[in-house]
Amino acid sequence: MLKELKELYQYRYLITTFVIRDVKARYRQTSLGIGWAIIQPLFLTGIFTIIFGNFLKVSTSGIPYPVFSFIALAAWTFISRSITAGSANLIGNSTIISKVYFPREVIPLATVISSLVDFGISSILMFLLLIFYHISFTWHLVLIPIIFLIQILMAISLALFSAAATVVFRDLLFAIPFLVQILMYGSPIIYSVKNLQRQFQILFYFNPITGIIEGYRSVLLYHEIPNLIYLGISFGFSIILLWTSYVFFKRIERYLADVV
Amino acid sequence: MKKIALSFNKVTKKYFKGGHYQPTLREWAGAIFTGKSFQRPQFKALNQISFAVQKGEVVGIVGSNGAGKSTILKMALKITFPNEGSVTINGTATGLLELNTGFHPELTGNENVYLYGSILGLSKERLDLIYPHVVKFSGLKGFMDMPIKHYSSGMLARLGFSIAIHVEPDILLIDEILSVGDLAFQEKCMKFMKNYCRNPNHTVVFVSHLLENIRAICTRVIWMEHGKVVESGKTNEVLKRYIKFQRGKNE
After folding, report:
1. What range(s) does the ABC transporter domain occupy (chain B) (predicted)?
2. Which end of chain A is more exposed for a tag (fewer CB within 10 A), N or C?
3. How many residue contacts between A and B have a Cβ separation below 8 Å?
């Protein structure tokens, strides 16, 4: 394990290059370029605001619906992209994998980091939205790094897991985007756990993404300490999944070049 | 005692015929109900193969198509692993299996040198250092800012070869790549290889069907057929019998 991590560190420049390649290749030759990273979440938020904020009047405890949903969408997009891109990227890089050696976990890791670029842009937009809606900043902001760390851990473990699992069951290449879409409705993005009945709130103990999304909302919008049960579940889930996925990933790595 | 750079010990590698294939749901269900696992036809790309390459040696590998030459290189590069037996590698190994594999078509020549170099495990500092040499050797000075999707195949070959040789690994593995590029570049490559092989720290394993290239640089040749070593020994002697064998197949 230590040996593998040391090797991974040696290949840090490769991770950087993969990330730059990912980001550049994603937005090069499009007229809007990096603008896509701004437009996508804003449009989605706009649609959510019209349908769930205005038509259906989802309760937000007094927070303007655009910020309420944008904050959740930003975190959700980052995690869901890590799952779907993680699943597709090992197979998408098959030509390199079957011809050159490098620690293969570089690919899912780079995927997560390149999604971070979009998350960074979303965070700036988020900041502007908070100012626009006159939502004040309190000392609770210092809790953000903790939530962010859990979010990163979760994204990496999910990317590793979906990458390895997709190699074993190729069907997941199609199943994962579909499952992710379902998971979106099962996560508190268009609604908040806070405003659900007690018996429904318990259901969200089974969704580790809840802790992260509601965590950000608590800290930035409601100025309170996040629900530690949800956050603890997110953390515990990420640590356990990170370990198991890494072992799983290392096992399939040995025959990866033969099957991709 | 000379140091061993690369050794294969009773290595067997099996592949499924028709490539890897995913059992369908029906086969899974069938296997569960009948208790039998699904059998798929396999073949042995390498069959209990053993050999060693000393440090500083320049070894050529010849053999018919499908003899297992490329599988050997892939194992030496840690791309794939044996089903049985073991492979020992002392030092770093870099290979040229196909020239443009690490390249990304949307990126420029310059960016691709850094991409490919980093795939081969080089640091940014090291790449900054070798970059001018790579450009000079490839002769692509005016084209480094162009996306490589506009390169010709010969230009790609030049760039790939130039990067790989400047990595200076302990073991350099080359598979059939010198045949691309124009005559002038080929001769430049062979001249470079001859010089490169003279250094006692450079171990080279060279797979090719161009026997004159093998003759030019290899001190020893391993002849393989059907995943086994037929003969290993002095270049000229092995090649003589190998040529006779190949001609015999056409009669």
Report:
1. 6-251
2. N
3. 67
